[in-house]
Amino acid sequence: MPLFDTRVAAVVVRLDRNPFHHGTLGAVRSLGRAGVPVHLVTGSPAEPAARSRYVRRCHLHPAGDGPAGVRRTLARIADALAGAPAVLLPLDDATAVALDGLRREPGGPVRRFLVPEQPPGLAALVADKAALAATCRRLGVPHPRTLAPADADEAAAMAAFLGLPVVAKWSRPWLLPPGAGLRSTVLVRSARQVRDLHARGAEAGSTLLLQRYLPASRDGDWFFHAYCDGAGACRVAGTGRKVRSWPDGAGLTAVGTWAPNPAVERLARGLVAALGYRGVADLDFRRDPDTGAYHLLDFNPRPGAQFRLFSDPWGLDVVRALHLDLTGRPVPDLVRSYGRRFAVENYAALSVLASPRPRTRAPGPSGGLETAWYAADDPAPAFAMARAWAAHLARHAWTAPRRAWRGGAGPRAPIPAQPSARTEAPRPAPSDPSSRR
Fold first, then answer.
1. What residue ranges are annotated as transmembrane (predicted)?
2. CB of 100 within 8 A of CB of 260?
3. How many C-beta atoms surround the C-beta of residue 347 within 10 A?
4. Is the model's pLDDT at 411 over the cut of 70?
5. Domain limits of the chain?
6. Which pLDDT tens digit goes with each residue over 172-181?
7. How far apart, in Å, are the Cα atoms of 429 and each of 146, 148, 153, 241, 316?
């Protein structure tokens, strides 16, 4: 295993209030097992990841504070570290975008931490679904057709033009207000649903986009994770196949396997190189069953929740590569372990219940299995997750019949940010279909 500079702490930051974000726990464990002191910035010290034995200290971040609150929290942590250097690691898009903006402030708190030298504004560009669509179009990267309606009538017309069902997504999902019942991405099946969503644009805080739906296909969902160093080299990178997801067929990875996909890797490496991207990246792709082309669905400027799938026999992964690089240590090439699997226990169970049919496994030797929550050397987060998950399911079971009785308002079939719709162009006039090709 590479030698780490264990004098340099890591500060793991996540503004998202989701207590079931297993990627946060993965980052804490990966760095902690390497001997790196880990500080976790979270909204609640009771969340499962905060129970890990590898958390040196928990720092609370007040809800709804935005960039100003991030600035204060980071200044407080930097003061607590008394000038000692620390690597800063965002675990969600809201944090990555906030840190990108704060990094450009002269004398700002982010400058007291070690972060990749990212081109200014690039994190926001790739996280913004509308900007990403335009970027893909400019660079010739395949992506689903995406339209931006100006009003409810145009939204209904565009949905009809794209063909129902369509994917509706907010261009800047990190701005969605908590507790509003709005989801970042939703599969909509009627013009009425499209109109209802468009009416909530002011509340959502960003533009509603409508995207052609790429249906799920066997072995069609893939992802690419990488760490790109200061010179733009991505020596630590891999492609994985989504075996199971939740929601089934159009959601986050519940079970994934490390497998080669030269087409996806070529597309992903070409895009990060063209953008001059630096740091950890997570890209999602779906194959168009009609053409066989892989389309980019999302570009996340931070580690994907399943990044631990790509851990080689020496324990190297994208998060460890970040710490090694930013502390001036050599970063070795990733030893590819095709056949390795990663499973998220709670979501995998839901996926099996929803679709019990067995899924194909990639040919070749098994590279072992890592579970997201349970680890023999760190069992407390798994037990905390199980308790919180049981309470979550009980609340859902209690409120779902009441919502249905009230009329079942709201869009169906939510698709969490990872899956299936592509971004494309600005809005053409719905009256001229030929202009939308």
1. none
2. no
3. 25
4. no
5. 9-115, 126-214+406-436, 221-373
6. 999 998 878 8
7. 13, 10, 12, 37, 50
